[in-house]
From TrEMBL:
InterPro entries in the record: Methyltransf_25, SAM-dependent_MTases_sf
Lineage: Archaea, Methanobacteriati, Methanobacteriota, Stenosarchaea group, Halobacteria
Name of the molecule in the record: Type 12 methyltransferase
Stretch forming the signal peptide: none
Start and end residues of each Methyltransferase domain: 50-139
Alphabetically ordered keywords of this record: Methyltransferase, Transferase
Domain of life: Archaea
MF terms in GO: methyltransferase activity
One GO term (biological process): methylation
Length: 215
């Protein structure tokens, strides 16, 4: 799947005002389970800055703003950002901001302690998912919590969970990429055969073992 970013952003802007009604319904138990677990695993401290990439209408960002020091939500869709801003105003939370930003260029240059992303990375083809994870590592968060479509086994074309708009990676590819850019994957939570959450923590020490190629 390689939909131009502008078309994808427009598609989300067109459904932005109905997005919460559809996604908070009981018809989306997998999405809701993934969102709740992601919020729990992000576990920000009161002085942490959290960056939520593909924030949409701000479900995760607003929940984390209850506990974090500051939360920054970024998305490519103006319509989704508008919804998130209106919810932030209604909530009275003053430590959360929303604006345009892309996975590989989040338009934020402050310090970031925790990066979260829920059901958004799958919109990128695998090569761009790698680039996005590299860009996240460059922000040097101590934790990255990724909830998304991800295959725990081989993708079964006869039984797709999502009919369109999803380019789920395998858990192996995501774990390899996170490890390559310097994270240690500390939790792999399976929500469904095709949906999960990965928790990656920053690895600061050099590995004890060196492969022959490194020597
Ligand atoms: C299915 S929604 C999920 C929104 C929110 N995270 C949630 O859990 O409700 C996916 C969101 O990702 C955004 N998105 C897609 N590609 C993106 C990209 N390359 N960079 C930033 N956001 C992106 C879309 O605009 C949309 O708002």
């Amino acid at each position: 799947m390689d939909e131009p970013l502008e078309d994808l952003a427009d598609r989300f802007s067109q459904i932005a005002d109905q997005y919460d009604d559809v996604h908070s319904s009981e018809e989306k138990p997998i999405y809701n389970a993934c969102a709740s677990l992601g919020i729990e695993l992000a576990d920000p401290r009161p002085d942490d800055v959290v960056l939520d990439l593909g924030t949409g209408t701000g479900l995760i960002a607003l929940a984390l703003a209850e506990d974090a020091g500051h939360v920054v939500g970024r998305d490519i869709s103006d319509g989704m950002v508008e919804q998130a801003r209106s919810k932030a105003a209604d909530s009275g939370l003053e430590n959360v901001e929303f604006g345009y930003g892309e996975f590989r260029d989040p338009h934020y240059d402050g310090d970031v302690d925790i990066v979260v992303s829920n059901f958004a990375l799958h919109h990128l083809p695998d090569e761009q998912k790698r680039e996005a994870i590299e860009a996240i590592a460059e922000l040097t968060p101590h934790r990255f919590v990724l909830g998304d479509a991800m295959f725990f086994g081989s993708p079964d074309p006869e039984e797709p969970l999502f009919d369109h708009g999803v380019d789920g990676a395998t858990v192996g590819m995501l774990v390899d990429t996170l490890t390559d850019v310097g994270f240690v994957v500390t939790a792999v939570e399976r929500v469904h055969d095709q949906v999960g959450i990965l928790v990656a923590e920053r690895r600061d020490e050099e590995p004890v073992y060196e492969s022959e190629e490194d020597q």
